[in-house]
Amino acid sequence: MATNITLHEGSVSAAERFELLKQKGVTIWLTGLSGSGKSTIACALEQHLLHEQKFSYRLDGDNIRFGLNKDLGFDEKSRVENIRRIGEVSKLFADAGCITITAFISPYRADREVARELHRKANLSFVEVFVDAPLTVVEQRDPKGLYKKARAGEIKDFTGISAPYEAPAHPEIHIKTDQCDVKQAVEIIARYLGVHNYI
Question: Does the predicted model carry a pTM greater than 0.85?
Answer without folding.
Answer: yes
